[in-house]
């Protein structure tokens, strides 16, 4: 199965690099810039028109509509054939995907959560998950901000990833500077920060392909 991964398009999806063919197109959050329903409508129409058989979306910290208008936002996705995951799983050809939009508190943004809440929510990630899609990265993996010389990923997420016995792939975004792929030597686990926008919000990073 070929996964095509993108994230953090911030309403710049019409200007991003071409999206390669694949079986599952994954967007790891921040599909909009201002989180409005019109912005989400434009994105879901575009995302739903991609030729990939399966399309998975989670929300990010800019995607306020999923918190403010959850029913309307989910309906927009469903009308376009998009599987929206918010603490939910979907199985595709015997691979189990789980969507986790929450991240450590960052300003007054959407899907902020304190450490205790994050740990509680992460306990609900099923042990049989093969592909975990979260908006934020795990601590010390594709989460480094050079200008501040700091790793800003989620510690609780990193710990839960290590507890999932069948996990093969973790897809995230959020930290634009962390764009790229890392493969863990001890078990071949693949981490992908698929942020399309750079730290200057230019939509120039190409989609990341992962073959399972």
Instruction: Please name the CATH topology.
Output: Purple Acid Phosphatase, chain A, domain 2
Cα-based radius of gyration, to the nearest Å: 15 Å
Strand content: 25-35%
On the 0 to 100 scale, the average pLDDT is 97
Give the neighbour order of strands across the main sheet.
5-6-9-12-14-13
Proportion in helices: 10-25%
Count the beta strands. Answer: 15
The CATH class designation is Alpha Beta
Helix and strand run: EEHEHHEEEEEHEEEHEEEE
Structure description:
With 212 residues, the protein is of the alpha/beta class. The protein has one domain: Purple Acid Phosphatase, chain A, domain 2. Helices cover 20% and strands 25% of the residues. The chain is built from five helices and 15 strands. The strands form four sheets. A six-stranded mixed β-sheet has the order 5-6-9-12-14-13, with no helix packed on it. The radius of gyration is 15 Å and the shape is globular. The termini are close together. The mean pLDDT is 97.
Quick recap:
This protein has helices at residues 37-48, 65-68, 70-79, 115-122, 155-163, and strands at 2-6, 24-27, 54-57, 83-84, 88-92, 95-100, 103-104, 112-113, 131-134, 144-145, 150-151, 169-172, 180-183, 190-193, 208-211. The chain has 212 residues and is an alpha/beta fold.
Present the secondary structure layout:
Blueprint: E1 2-6, E2 24-27, H1 37-48, E3 54-57, H2 65-68, H3 70-79, E4 83-84, E5 88-92, E6 95-100, E7 103-104, E8 112-113, H4 115-122, E9 131-134, E10 144-145, E11 150-151, H5 155-163, E12 169-172, E13 180-183, E14 190-193, E15 208-211
Parallel strand pairs: 1-2, 2-3, 3-4, 6-9, 7-8, 9-12, 12-14
Antiparallel strand pairs: 1-15, 5-6, 10-11, 13-14
